[in-house]
Write a structure and sequence with these properties.
Length: 549
């Protein structure tokens, strides 16, 4: 696998907590059975037979054999414990999980303007137009922290600079944008705070609709602060703008917004539609879903969960998922410590999703993340269970994966020998429960804090703002475009789960605070350290796996 030098930041990996490990191990080990009662004479326990000497000699030989096996097991356990004591030393770089993340904005500073609820009339038809005037910006905005300059955004925001680097020098021309039309599903134009969409083709399910809905909420939240832009959006999975095709003139590449990319493409990464809901599979907006997962995770404590790695999904969308399914327990008794289940969405729809609840999938100590056709939407839900995530190495990058740190937020799994890698990871975690549990908690804290909707909107705001600065022309509304807004989209939405997702995720106020402050680009030295640290983590995990195969 080729590793993008900046695909992960890194930090200390599996820091030792000997007392905690012993405490967790004791909690996970059943107590020994009580000794049998002694007889009235104080000799052998009551009911024990006295064996002839010949039998006792045979028992002595058996005891020696059992002792040898026991010593071998102790050596194996000692190897695992020893690995935990010296395995993957701390890095000198600052760990993102040790940083204290404060609330995005000061809750004592209320929003300056609450948006009135909208009405869809008698429910028989959607309004033909959006309100005559869009939401007004607040007279003045206050820093997000309520008195001090806005706090810096999380480090993954720095990839905004990388995604837009091809156009930093020459800027973005109208011709470059038009060149992206063959990749796009729709064109989004923002002019004077109003959004317009020209549709080229319909996406799978409602990906396009909920991406547009997210932009409409951004315009409500940061009314009057989103610049005029002209953007081509793609709603499929894999990046299509190949860097090799524009090696001589990177600024000629079309800036196409997409949910993920890899090291060979120039697509611009944007938050995926499911942050506002995925009605077709009964997944609501991200904040409510995240809270439901948190409650369920708290209900079943980590030591009480099944000591295996869990994954449930559609294995038919990618060959690598079919390979993963081979890691299920085999008929010959071989157990890779994985419990893998195929998701049949047609069956799930017919039985009301009773067996497909995201919050109910926090019942195993370990969760597996694996790509689909490219990145997988399941990533953020898998990360939220407080269980260590066994992350199958992938070339695909989305806004979440770019912020994850190997060994701090997840355990890396080798995609070329997944079964052996999963078994080694679970064995290590069960031998060192405190360290394993810490990885799970840090990964979940990352998605709860740094991937909260406040930051998702700020990422969108900064990306669109930086993109707008690069435009070398004034955006204009296309002749075939239609205006979109929260009112027109929600009232036109199909009744049921689609409308419910929109009602859950509609922004109810114009923010009276500033977005977080966009951090600067990575320096070349930082890039070098990030790449070196990740390679070191992968090397040490590979060595562990080889030594314990």
């Amino acid at each position: 696998m080729t590793h993008e030098p900046m695909s992960r930041s890194s930090s200390s990996f599996f820091r030792r907590d000997a007392a905690g490990d012993e405490e967790r191990a004791a909690a996970l080990t059943p107590p020994p059975p009580p000794p049998p009662p002694a007889d009235d004479k104080g000799g052998a326990p009551a009911g024990r037979r006295r064996w002839p000497s010949s039998v006792m000699r045979m028992k002595g030989v058996g005891s020696v054999m059992v002792g040898v096996v026991f010593l071998a097991l102790l050596v194996l356990v000692h190897r695992w414990v020893g690995l935990d004591a010296s395995f993957l030393r701390d890095s000198s770089m600052v760990s993102t999980s040790t940083r204290q993340w404060h609330p995005h904005h000061n809750i004592s500073t209320p929003p300056l303007m609450t948006l009135p609820p909208f009405s869809c009339g008698n429910g028989t038809a959607a309004p033909a137009t959006c309100p005559a005037t869009p939401p007004s910006p607040p007279p003045t905005s206050k820093p997000a922290t309520g008195g001090e300059p806005a706090a810096s955004c999380p480090d993954y925001f720095r990839y905004i600079h990388d995604d837009l680097r091809p156009w930093r020098g020459a800027g973005i021309t109208r011709e470059a944008v038009e060149r992206g039309r063959r990749h796009a599903y729709f064109r989004l134009v923002v002019v004077s705070g109003r959004a317009y969409v020209e549709t080229y083709r319909r996406s799978y399910q409602t990906r396009d609709a909920f991406t547009q809905w997210g932009v409409a909420q951004l315009l409500r939240r940061y009314a009057g602060r989103v610049p005029d832009v002209d953007i081509m959006f793609a709603c499929d999975d894999r990046g299509r703008v190949r860097a090799a095709d524009f090696a001589a003139a990177p600024a000629d590449a079309p800036p196409v917004f997409r949910y993920c990319r890899d090291a060979t493409t120039l697509d611009v990464v944007f938050p995926d539609w499911s942050f506002w809901g995925w009605p077709e599979v009964n997944i609501g907006a991200w904040p409510a879903t995240l809270e439901a997962v948190r409650r369920e995770s708290a209900r079943v404590r980590w030591p009480e969960r099944e000591p295996f790695a869990f994954w449930k999904g559609n294995p038919g969308v990618a060959r690598i998922r079919g390979e993963l399914m081979k890691c299920n327990p085999a008929s010959d008794g071989k157990d890779w410590n994985a419990r893998l289940f195929s998701q049949d969405w047609n069956h799930a729809i017919h039985n009301g999703f009773r067996d497909s609840s995201i919050p109910k999938q926090c019942l195993h100590r370990y969760k597996i993340y694996i790509e689909g056709e490219a990145w997988s939407v399941s990533e953020k839900y898998i990360m939220a269970c407080d269980s260590p995530v066994l992350f199958v190495n992938t070339p695909y990058q989305d806004i979440l994966s770019r912020g994850l740190v190997a060994g701090e937020h997840y355990w890396p799994i080798n995609r070329t020998r997944m079964c052996e890698s999963i078994r080694a990871a679970v064995d290590w975690g069960n031998a060192h429960p405190a360290a394993a549990r810490r990885i799970g908690e840090q990964g979940s804290r990352f998605v709860r804090e740094q991937m909260a909707m406040d930051y998702v909107y700020d990422y969108m705001f900064h990306l669109i703002t930086e993109y707008g600065k690069l435009l070398r022309y004034r955006p204009a509304v296309p002749a075939n475009a239609v205006e979109i807004c929260a009112e027109s989209m929600a009232c036109a939405a199909a009744a049921g789960r689609e409308r419910e997702c929109m009602d859950e995720s509609v922004e109810g106020f114009v923010a009276g605070f500033d977005p977080c402050a966009l951090p600067p680009p990575f320096t070349e030295e930082e890039k070098r350290k990030i790449a070196a640290r990740e390679e070191e983590v992968l090397r040490k995990v590979a060595k562990l796996e080889e030594e314990n195969m």
